C-alpha cells in the first residue's frame, strides 16, 4: 500500500495539520502516562526542525460533543509540550472557527498551535463535511501519525484528508512504522507463518481467524474462545465460557481451516477450576474434556508443549489475545510461557508482531516487551488491519 511519509514532503514555510494520538490518561489536570505524546515527538520535531509550523490535533477521552468541557481540555498537553519538550506551543481558543484560523495564520515556522479536543465538536465523530472544511482551512499540508484512530471514519483522520492536495498528504513516522510492520505479516510473510489467537470471544476474532485461514500455516487457539470451538467439535466444556449462538460459525471455521490447508490447533488439555477466582483450586484435565462442575481458565501443559513446538518452527508470528485468565496469578502460566517463547523466537530472528491490549499487557507482565519485533500501539486498529478490514484513516493516505 503506497503512501508518502514526512521525509517525502518539503515542509519549509508550510503550515501542517498534524493528527496525532495524544489521548493520554489525565487525572485532575495531571498527565499520568505520556507514552503516546512521546511516541509522536519524532514526527512533530521533524516538521518543526524542517521549517514548518504545526497545527496539532487529537481527541482525548469521550466528551459529550456539545462544546468545551474542562475535564477534557488539551491544556495539560500544551503545557507538557512547552515544559517537558521545550516546544513553542500554545493552546488554541477552540477546536475550529474564525478565531482559531487567525491563531493558525499567526504561527511562525517552528511554532505549534494545539487545537482543543476534536471531540468537543460532534462533527469529528460524525465526520461532518462542515467540520472537515473548518479543519482543512487551518493548514495547507496534512500529516497523520494517529494509527490508533485509523479504524474510525472520523473527520480528522478520514473526511478532512481529500481537502488537501494529493502531494501535501503524508503519514507520520509512527503511522509508517505500524503500517510497515503489519504489512509484513499480511503481505508475503516469511513462512512458516504461525498465528496465536486467544481472548474472551470467538465473535470478536472471527474476521481475524478467517483472514488467516489459508494465509497462516498454523493457527494456535487459546483463551475462552477455544471452548466454543471445542464444543462445536463435540468436546465437553463444563462450565467454561461458551458462545452458544456461535457454534454453527465455529463449525464453519473448523471446516474452512481444513479446506484451506491451515493447521488449526485447539487446546489438548486445560487448567480448570470450579469458580472464576484466583484462589479456586486449580487442576489439570486429562485430555480435552472438562468435567461438568469445572471451567477452563488456562491452557494445560500438554497444550503449551505442543504450541511451543509450532512457535519455535515459525519465521513469522502474530499474537492477539491471551491464552487464559492471565490477570489471575494461578491462570497466567500458559499466557506467560507463550510470551516468553515469542521473545525467544524474535531473538532467533523470527518476525514477531504482538497486537491487542491484552497481549501487550501479557508481554509486559512477562517482561519480554523489549525483545518483541513490533508491538502494535493501536489495539482496535491493528485487529481490524489484521482482519483484512480496510482502515479509513489508512485508505485516505493512499497515493
Ligand atoms: P480479549 O479482549 O478478547 O482479547 O480477551 C481478553 C480477556 O479474555 C482477558 O481479560 C482474559 O482474562 C479473558 N480470558 C482468557 N481466557 C479466559 C478463560 N478461559 N475464561 C474466561 N476469560 C478468559
Commentary on this structure:
By secondary structure, the chain is an alpha/beta fold. The chain has two domains: 171 residues, Rossmann fold, CATH 3.40.50; 199 residues, Phosphoglycerate kinase, N-terminal domain (Rossmann fold). It has 16 helices and 17 strands. The strands form four sheets. The chain has a six-stranded parallel β-sheet with strand order 5-6-4-1-7-8. A six-stranded parallel β-sheet has the order 11-10-9-15-16-17, with helices on both faces. Strands 13-12-14 form a three-stranded antiparallel β-sheet. β16, α14 and β17 form a beta-alpha-beta unit. α9 packs parallel to α11, α10 crosses α11 and α13 crosses α14. The longest helix has 15 residues. It is elongated and about 70 Å long. The mean pLDDT is 96.
Question: Keywords for this structure?
Answer:
399 residues, alpha/beta, Rossmann fold, six-stranded parallel beta sheet, 36% helix, binds adenosine monophosphate
Quick description:
With about 400 residues, the protein is α/β, with parallel strands linked by helices. About 35% of the residues lie in helices and about 15% in strands.
Q: List how many beta strands DSSP finds.
A: 17
Number of domains: 2
| Count of helical stretches | 16
Instruction: Specify the helix fraction band.
Output: 25-40%
CATH superfamily of the largest domain: Phosphoglycerate kinase, N-terminal domain
* Overall pLDDT confidence: 96
- The CATH class label of the largest domain is Alpha Beta
Instruction: Please report the distance between the alpha carbons of the first and last residues.
Output: 8 Å
Mind telling me which CATH architecture of the largest domain this is?
A: 3-Layer(aba) Sandwich
Which structural class do the helices and strands define? alpha/beta
> What does the main sheet amount to?
6 strands, parallel
Q: Give the overall shape.
A: elongated
Question: Which small-molecule ligands are present, each listed once?
Answer: adenosine monophosphate
CATH topology description of the largest domain: Rossmann fold
What is the percentage of strand-forming residues?
15-25%
Radius of gyration (CA) equals 23 Å
The low-pLDDT segments are none
